[in-house]
């Protein structure tokens, strides 16, 4: 009995049963500064991973790449190059300027597909986090502030709170306040650099200065930050803190041995004597050494009569 050897050559046809595979964690995260200038190949191009396919060539493991169409594809374009030395390179190119304040995150989907029939594909989500640049300046909530304060306000009394916001993040958006060099009397107020609160810094006096026009600057703490300006007007309100002063030289008599004295406003203007009219603040002095209470001030008036028609205040004083 003879044996026969048969050499069997078996050809296994590849079946496209493997999809391309990315060997990176999903999603892929990239950080891109919003200051990146589009179209600069060196600065605005970002390397992406390539996928491998375990099937056999030529078609079942031939991987092609595309971005899944979505709105963010407007910002990025896919560049795929193949050469014998470096193999296939997949890069993402920024084609439109980013703005973190408009959109801080962009999401793309990179699709790798083989050339089989039917093709198999794998999707790799890409999350692009836009890093902040200091491209916004602080903006005051109003261009000018106009406030009033009583001249008797104690040191530390809050007069106003200025406020500016900066759309940037972190130090780029952290606003600090200070007075500008402009404005007479700004030492009379203190400005909290963090809160923007303006308080009375020392005793005010309407007679000394009745209005302050103070320049306020808001600047962020980011590199190259530019300050914004707002005008703070503080109007000092007069308060009845000066005693009336009666002018003894302007007194005159009335017919009934009385004098009529117009007590001035509590600022100390001259008193006048009226024979026939009695406007507000007019008092009749009919006795020697009379006491009045005017605007919370106690006034004593000594009246000396020279004769019925000529008389004179000798003295007036205030408690
Ligand atoms: Ca395949
Ligand atoms: Ca921006
Ligand atoms: Ca800023
Ligand atoms: Ca920014």
Structure notes:
The protein has three domains: 21-131, Cadherins (Immunoglobulin-like), CATH 2.60.40.60; 139-237, Immunoglobulin-like; 248-318, no CATH class. The protein is an all-beta fold and 319 residues long. 0% of the residues lie in helices and 42% in strands. It is rod-shaped and about 140 Å long. The protein has a four-stranded mixed sheet with strand order 2-9-8-5, with no helix packed on it. It has a four-stranded mixed sheet with strand order 11-18-17-14, with no helix packed on it. The protein has a three-stranded antiparallel sheet with strand order 3-7-6, with no helix packed on it. It binds calcium ion (4 copies). One calcium ion binds at residues 34, 99-101, 135. The site of one calcium ion (CA) has 10 residues, from loops.
Q: Compute the number of structural domains.
A: 3
The SSE order reads EEEEEEEEEEEEEEEEEEEEEEEE
Strand order of the largest sheet: 2-9-8-5
Would you report the number of β strands?
A: 24
Indicate the mean pLDDT.
81
Helix content range: under 10%
Bound molecules: calcium ion
Which term fits the overall shape?
A: rod-shaped
CATH T-level fold name of the largest domain: Immunoglobulin-like
**CATH architecture type of the largest domain:** Sandwich
């Amino acid at each position: 009995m003879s044996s026969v050897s048969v050499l069997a050559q078996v050809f296994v046809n590849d079946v496209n049963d493997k999809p391309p595979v990315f060997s990176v964690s999903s999603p892929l995260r990239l950080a891109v500064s919003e200051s990146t200038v589009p179209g600069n190949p060196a600065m605005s191009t970002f390397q992406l991973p390539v996928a491998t396919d375990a099937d056999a060539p030529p078609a079942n493991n031939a991987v092609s790449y595309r971005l899944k169409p979505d709105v963010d594809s407007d910002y990025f374009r896919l560049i795929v190059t193949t050469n014998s030395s470096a193999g296939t390179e997949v890069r993402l190119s920024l084609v439109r300027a980013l703005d973190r304040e408009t959109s801080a995150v962009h999401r793309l989907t990179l699709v790798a597909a083989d050339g089989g029939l039917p093709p198999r594909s794998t999707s790799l989500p890409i999350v692009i986090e836009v890093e902040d640049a200091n491209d916004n300046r602080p903006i005051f909530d109003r261009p000018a502030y106009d406030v009033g304060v009583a001249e008797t306000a104690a040191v530390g009394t809050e007069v106003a709170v200025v406020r500016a916001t900066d759309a940037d993040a972190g130090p780029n958006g952290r606003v600090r306040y200070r007075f500008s060099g402009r404005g007479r009397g700004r030492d009379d107020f203190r400005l909290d650099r963090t809160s923007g609160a303006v308080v009375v810094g020392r005793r005010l006096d309407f007679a000394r200065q009745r209005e302050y026009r103070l320049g306020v600057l808001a600047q962020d703490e980011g590199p190259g930050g530019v300050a914004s300006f707002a005008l703070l007007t503080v109007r000092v309100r007069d308060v009845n803190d000066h005693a009336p002063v009666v002018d003894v030289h302007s007194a005159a008599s009335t017919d009934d041995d009385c004098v009529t004295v117009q007590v001035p406003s509590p600022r100390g203007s001259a008193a006048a004597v009226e024979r026939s009219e009695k406007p507000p603040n007019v008092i009749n002095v009919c006795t020697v050494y009379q006491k009045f209470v005017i605007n919370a001030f106690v006034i004593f008036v000594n009246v000396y009569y020279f004769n019925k028609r000529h008389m004179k205040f000798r003295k007036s004083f205030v408690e």
